[in-house]
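Q: Here's a chain of 138 amino acids. Please give me its 3D structure as tokens.
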Amino acid sequence: MAMDNIEKLNQMAKERGNPFRVLIVDDEKWVQDVFKDFCALTDAFTVDMADNGADAVEKARTNKYDLITLDLIMPEMSGLEVLEAIQEVSPHVPVMIITGNATEKVINKAGIMGACSIMYKPIMLENFIAEVMATLSK
């Protein structure tokens, strides 16, 4: 199933004439690497990384992204603060929350604030690709 979705993503990128640009925001390097590896399975993405909220907001301000994945629990700037700031600078970019230990209250607030979807770590490749494809198809 994941391979079918990867082929669909490749076709979507080909039809639009360029890869989807994705920003992955997570303070844990290994999580960034996993998602980057997921995205590297296809030619449909170019990937940027941010390991903190301030960097993520600056990148969202200066680049055009098709999708942002965002961890909710990070030092300095919380994921909710980052989500709010990103929505101010790039209001039409879908933000997918990816979290491992956020409380239900925080997760619900992210949904109310406009996150397009919420996934829980650890994430399986098939689920990640399916969610990305569903989000980019909208």
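Q: Can you summarize the key feature?
A: The chain has a mean pLDDT of 91.
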